[in-house]
Structures are given as structure tokens and as C-alpha cells.
Amino acid sequence: MKGLIKMIRFGIVGMGNRGNLFADTLLQNPYAELVAVSDAFESALEKSKDKYGVAGYADVKDMIENEQLDALVIATPDFLHKEPVMLAAKHGIHFMVEKPYSTSVEEAVEMDEAVQKSNVKCMVAFENRWNSPFVAVKNAVENGEIGDIITVNSRLNDTIFVPTQMLKWSKGSSPGWFLLPHATDIALWLKKNAAPVSVYAVGTKKKLVSMGIDTYDSIQSVVSFDDGTHATFTTSWVLPESMPLIYDFKYEIIGSDGALYVDLSDQMVRKAGGVYSHMHTLGTPINGQFTSAPSCMLNAFVDHIRLDTAPEADSKAGLLNTKLVHAIHRSVENGTIEQI
Fold first, then answer.
1. How far is the C-alpha of 126 from the C-alpha of 232, rounded, in Å?
2. What is the DSSP secondary structure assignment for residue 78, as one 8-state letter?
3. For residues 180 and 269, is the Cβ–Cβ distance under 8 A?
4. Distance CA 330, CA 244 (A)
């Protein structure tokens, strides 16, 4: 208790870059308290225990059984979400889980069923729903400023630094699983009255395979919706490290009465010096307070718990996204149009 405020007791599983960002965010939230962390890597676990002064566990199961948690943040690799989700649901613990909800439709269905039975609050970390350019886009669409959405075109790429150096587990993922959920979720969010029904996609394996990482360099897909509209999604993991930012994210929404264009790669400030770069401005801390999309997202999750409101980016949204991205991968592998 701080004064008359009952603190929401959080645990975090997965103390990589994201886990640390979420931990730092919780330290600033007046309604939340970080009480424990979990990580399978001893070095990351010990560093986090020392940094945050909390209990640490190598196994998330032990953390859940030994701590009185109200909520859990799941920041494990793409393919390791099921166990902590099922444990949280079983023990009645609210949770926020990184995207993708799962890399398996079967697992995602099982996870969703567990959430529905438990009545815990589940929020999937589709952080761009809290990214100010996309919030502006959502408001413009809902205000009818571009009419009905005719088509969506997205390009979301990373430099080769991400699969070769930043992620230790890129062999178990792909640019499709790591990046596409961001882009596809925005389309599903904007086109909430239209459901995706089929997809055709192609992929390339050359550069990363030659470096011993058996995953796709790039994936291109066309998704069809039940309202007769279509969307294209392109993603790649092999941009050169000389790019001005580690990622390149562009989004185009064409409507019956107008269009919207988003370029998250150009954040308004360009820095020239030894190396030309774009400075990160979206999410710059103000008065010491975190303002990034992931921090705003986690703060929104805290509010859903304390105010007893339902997250929009819930288990159903996570399941639908997994079905869509899984269908994209099936289409790449089979060379066929896949139903969603």
C-alpha cells in the first residue's frame, strides 16, 4: 500500500530488452509494483534481481507459485508464450503478453479457451495501437475523414542486425512472426467491421540461410477481406545496417474519399555527423516520464486492471492475428491461397 492506493503486484517473465523496459515503466506507475522477475538465463536473471531489488526465479512456474501476483507481463520469445499464459490463466492472474499471441494456431486456440474460462484480463502487446501516428490514423478513419477503406499497404522491415545480433532466438522465428503481427494488427484494428478470409504469400530464403540462420529474408503477402477489399504486407529482415534507423515502417491507407500515409522511419529529426541517422523522437521521455508506445500500452493495462475494464487488444484479437500470420506462412510454404 502507498497511502490509500492498493498496489497491483506484477511479475515479469523474460528480462531481455523488453522485459527491462516494462520493469522501468512499472516503477513509474503509481498503481503498480514490481515484486518478482523470471528468466531462464542466469546472467539476465541475476542482473535484473540486482537492478530492481526483487525476487528472481529461473522458472516462471516457481515465481507464480511462490509470489502473490495480481498481474504478469510475458516478454519471452515469440514461440514461448503458451506456458506462462496457461499458468496465469490457471492461477487467476491478469496478464499482458507480447505479440504474436502464439506462433501456433492450435496453441492460440487453447490459450484463448483458458482465458475465457478464467475471466482474467488478457492484453496482447500490439503496441502500435498506442503509437501516436497510428492513434491519429485511427481517429481520422473513425471520423470518416477518408471514407471507407479501399486498400491498405504496409512495409515493415528490420536491418540485418536484428536477426544476426539483437535476437538470440531468430532461428525459431521469422520476419513474418517478429514483424508482421504489428502491421497486420493495425489493419485488423482499422477494419474492425471486416474479417480477413484468405491470403496468398511468397517468401525468399537466401541471405540469412547463407549465414546459418534458417529463416526467411523476406515475405510478401496479399490478404483478402470479406468486404471485398484487400491489403498487402511486406516484411524483411535483411536491410543493411547503414539504414538511418534499425527498422523501416511505412503504412498507406487508401479510402473512398482520401488517403493516409504513415512513415515511422522519419521521426522529424535527422542527425548528420560521422553517421547519418534519424533520431528517435516518438516516445522521448518528458520530465523523466516514459512516453513510448510500449510504456503507454503497459500503463493502459494497469488501468484496465484497477478500473475493471476490458482490453480491446484481447485474447480474441491475439488469436485472429495468429490465424492470419500463420496462414501467411502456410501460403509461403505451400505456394497456395490459404483460408484464414
1. 19
2. T
3. no
4. 33
* Strand residues in 31-169 grouped as ranges (E): 32-38, 55-57, 71-74, 94-98, 122-125, 149-159
Q: 319, 110 in Cβ contact below 8 A?
A: no
CA distances from 249 to 16, 116, 199, 229, 294 (A): 23, 34, 21, 22, 16
CA–CA distance, 62 with 67 (Å, rounded to integer): 8
For 19-35, the DSSP string reads HHHHHHHHHH-TTEEEE
Please, what are the domains in the chain? 8-128+293-309 (3.40.50.720), 130-289+321-339 (3.30.360.10)
- Point out the residues of the chain with pLDDT beneath 50: 1
Cα–Cα dist 135/132, whole Å? 5
Contact 12, 24 (CB under 8 A): no
What stretch of H or E contains 330?
helix 315-334
C-alpha neighbours within 13 Å on the C-beta side of residue 298: 33
pLDDT, tens digit, for every residue of 130-144? 999 999 999 999 999
The secondary structure element, H or E, covering residue 161 is: helix 161-161
pTM of this structure: 0.95
324 is written with which cell numbers? Answer: 492470419
